[in-house]
């Protein structure tokens, strides 16, 4: 069975992005395992000279390395991603590059009608950075608008159209993962490209 990592890109304790990923985890449990990871309490990125990552972040890096794919669900703050998600990506692009060539699906919720579309645009740009270089499914990510009204008390979708749209995206992503399998050698080569970029352009 496929194993995916779901990154909750929001600082909120009761975030609709976590509700979305939790719904996916249970609705598609016969298709894949989804482990949810919150980045809310990660330490601030401080570019350690030793390249040694904090233990909790190293654990996540190891899990992403062995996962078949990653789902990132982002909130939208000031038309962009929350600081906690930007901070997490800084750690995930430092020294080990677990996101490089990793099949990745972007999702997001917002209280308004645009469903985090502007944050997802910025997130896609960030994931294109050489030290991240995620293998993203083409097209727009999954957008959940008016998220405060989107879920029932038992954490199901209140609107049937949201369930239909989500199933379309998830099924496309499963096919995307199947068609984008990489050998260990290919992954190592891709990570070497990211490492060489870091050597040439050291972040100051």
TrEMBL record:
<dbReference type="Pfam" id="PF03358">
    <property type="entry name" value="FMN_red"/>
</dbReference>
<dbReference type="InterPro" id="IPR050712">
    <property type="entry name" value="NAD(P)H-dep_reductase"/>
</dbReference>
<feature type="domain" description="NADPH-dependent FMN reductase-like">
    <location>
        <begin position="3"/>
        <end position="139"/>
    </location>
</feature>
<dbReference type="GO" id="GO:0016491">
    <property type="term" value="F:oxidoreductase activity"/>
</dbReference>
<dbReference type="GO" id="GO:0005829">
    <property type="term" value="C:cytosol"/>
</dbReference>
<protein>
    <submittedName>
        <fullName>NAD(P)H-dependent FMN reductase</fullName>
    </submittedName>
</protein>
<dbReference type="InterPro" id="IPR029039">
    <property type="entry name" value="Flavoprotein-like_sf"/>
</dbReference>
<dbReference type="InterPro" id="IPR005025">
    <property type="entry name" value="FMN_Rdtase-like_dom"/>
</dbReference>
<dbReference type="GO" id="GO:0010181">
    <property type="term" value="F:FMN binding"/>
</dbReference>
């Amino acid at each position: 069975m496929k194993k995916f990592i779901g990154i909750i890109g929001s600082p909120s304790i009761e975030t609709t992005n976590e509700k979305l990923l939790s719904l996916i985890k249970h609705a598609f449990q016969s298709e894949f395992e989804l482990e949810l990871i919150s980045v809310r309490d990660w330490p601030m990125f401080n570019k350690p000279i030793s390249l040694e990552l904090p233990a909790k972040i190293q654990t996540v890096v190891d899990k992403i390395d062995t996962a078949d794919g990653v789902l990132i669900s982002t909130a939208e703050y000031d038309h962009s991603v929350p600081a906690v998600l930007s901070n997490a990506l800084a750690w995930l692009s430092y020294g080990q590059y677990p996101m490089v060539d990793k099949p990745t699906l972007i999702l997001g919720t917002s209280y308004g009608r645009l469903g985090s579309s502007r944050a997802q645009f910025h997130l896609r740009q960030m994931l294109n950075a050489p030290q991240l270089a995620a293998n993203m499914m083409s097209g727009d990510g999954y957008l959940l608008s008016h998220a405060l009204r989107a879920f029932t008390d038992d954490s199901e979708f209140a609107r049937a159209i949201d369930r239909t749209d989500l199933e379309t995206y998830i099924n496309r992503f499963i096919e995307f993962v199947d068609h984008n399998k990489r050998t260990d050698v290919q992954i190592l080569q891709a990570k070497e490209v990211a490492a060489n970029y870091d050597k040439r352009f050291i972040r100051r």
